[in-house]
Amino acid sequence: MRTADAVTPMSGLVVPFVTFTAVYVFLSVILVYVLRRQFLETHPNAPGRSGAAPGASRGG
Amino acid sequence: MAVELTLGAAILVALVLYALSGGADYGGGMWDLLALGPRAQRQREAIEHAIGPIWEANHVWLILVIVVLFTGFPTAFAVIMTALHIPMTAILVGIVLRGSAFVFRRYDVRDDAVHRRRSTLFGAASFFTPFLLGVCLGALASGEIRVAGGRVSSGFLAGWTGPFAVACGLFAQGLFAFLAATYLTVDTEGEPDLQEDFRKRALASGLFLAPVAALTFLLARPWAPQIFARLTSWWAPLLLAVTSVCAVGALAALWARRFQWARVAAVGQVTCILVGWGLAQYPHVVAPDLTLTNTATVPSTLYALRSALAVGAVVLFPAFSYLLYVFKRRQTLPPKRGASV
Prior knowledge:
The complex is a heterodimer of chains A (60) and B (341).
Chain A: H1 3-6, H2 14-42
Chain B: H1 2-33, H2 40-51, H3 59-72, H4 74-83, H5 85-107, H6 113-142, E1 147-148, E2 151-152, H7 163-187, H8 192-223, H9 225-230, H10 235-255, H11 259-281, E3 284-286, E4 290-291, H12 292-295, H13 299-331
Antiparallel strand pairs in B: 1-2, 3-4
Helix pairs in contact in B: 1-2, 1-3, 1-6, 1-7, 1-11, 1-13, 3-4, 5-6, 6-7, 7-8, 7-11, 8-10, 10-11
């Protein structure tokens, strides 16, 4: 059985494809955002953190 | 027939366990979104603590249903996934968003607008996912999904867009909200004000269920006639009586603040409702064209699957019991937000 024969007869498969792509792109963006925020919040010398020493060597 | 029946029963058992565990998680998400009053924040913390460590383990039951379905009854699986492609896709998106929102929120650092938006996403997904789960079960019972030559012939909107399926969706929502609130009355033992909040929510959602159940039943007559006819079998009045006793018993126990009993009765109620659906549906997987027998795969696979399930159960049940035991033991410690990793 070829992939083309096995595929669902549902038309407009581009819609679920775009939907799932959008969901996972959205989640990836949020993940990066959460990780960044967590880093900035917990790392004492992270750049962008209020009160951080400018030019701190451990920042990243 | 025997082996198909065993596998069908395994699917039903897994669905019941999913409703009792995962269903309550959805309900918890609903109450998170509806957290109101001066103790809203503490309500959310109690819900988070209750869902906490086992929130993703509950999906094991849904996965089991799907695996048994596509291994044992591949034709039924293909038809269900094709005919219900749209709601199934939405359920999948709902499960993914709900889980992600919960995890992001739990491991996030600050309470602010972003945090709030995640809570909203978690709550919204907790509302629409169980609605669609109910809609899908209703669609299977509706008799509107038709099959010709092993392929769906009724299109992609049949069944799940009908009034009966929508009523089933509302019923599932109400049932899960009720189950969650009832569980939470037990979980908040030792915090009487919170417990009272969840008691009121459990009573309200339990009372909401009664008219929705009646509506679902009445709509079954014109919109799911085959299932409705099965509800006149000898077992139906008996099951209805047990379900009613559980439902009334749960409400009475909540009223009398006997929360442990309320939880037992609510579990009984949900179990009876799903078993009733299963018996009414039997022997059909998708009424009226697909049955357990005419969608079952070759016997060798069925027997192998049955053995695999038996072995799996030996591993799964003790593991799950242990997980719950560990989790419930943690429950006796004072809940401390952010204490866990």
